[in-house]
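Q: Got a minute? One more chain.
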Amino acid sequence: MSEMERIYLSKIVTFEKGKPPSQIPINESELEPYLTPDYLRGKNNPDYTKPGLNAVRVEDGEIIVLWDGSNAGEILKAKKGILASTMMKLNHSYEFEKEYFYYALKGWEHFLKSQTSGSGIPHVDKEILENILLQKFSKPEQTKIAEVLSTVDKAIEQTEVLIAKQQRIKTGLMQDLLTKGIDKYGNLRNEKTHKFKDSPLGRIPVEWEVVTIGKVAESIVPGRDKPILDGGSIPWITLPDIDAIYLRNNKSNLSLSKTAIKAANARLMPKNTVLMSCIGEFGIATILDIDVVANQQLHGFVCNDVILPEWL
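A: Always. Here it is, folded:
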């Protein structure tokens, strides 16, 4: 392997922030793709708009950072179109091969997401971004590294297609199980074989009750102030840490001590707390198997003895 060199990002990139689209009446022939995060993630079709006079255009494969919002810090590959006002394009030095630069920066994504600024809408801290260190190899070696990682990404994409199919099956099964339940013989209830009643949630088995979450769980809202992350034994959890539903064994690279928790009037979320996102991608849920402290993007529910965390 060739000799490595570590370079600060600020030495090799310039930044271009996206602009809002034009708001004036337009003709269809004037429309261009306006990039959105879901479009770049392959989940949606692009939005179309007329670009403003100062619009920032990007080409396929250029590297951008999601600058504002609940996923601020996410590293994305651009598709040809107009850069959104919530995004920043990184124009990097010729010393870095494009694919390698993407993967080198992608490795810092979790760190960037955990270090966002702003008490309202989170945004990337530019100073922290500029002080990221990237490993520099010879360009042929960069190409080889990027080829290996690209091959892995393609395999992941194929796996994700299968997972999405299974997720659709699971969603249908959850709908049945959580509204009808299973009788003592292990059979799914239905109105031909079991008694049902009306409820605020629709038809449910007569044995069931409908209650508010407040009746079965204590709500924990994180404190407004971010505590000092002094490297103690208790993990500091943010939205990126729970991006997998029902993910257990939540671990974080950032942590704090009980002293730091007390100083910031923070709230400890104990083991078995049901954690749910309440900003941005609302409703992502997980169950903790360790004590944590969470930021304001997350809301905790500690179940009482009449309901299981897994059920909630």
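A: The chain has three domains: 5-137, 152-210, 212-312.
Q: Perfect, thanks.
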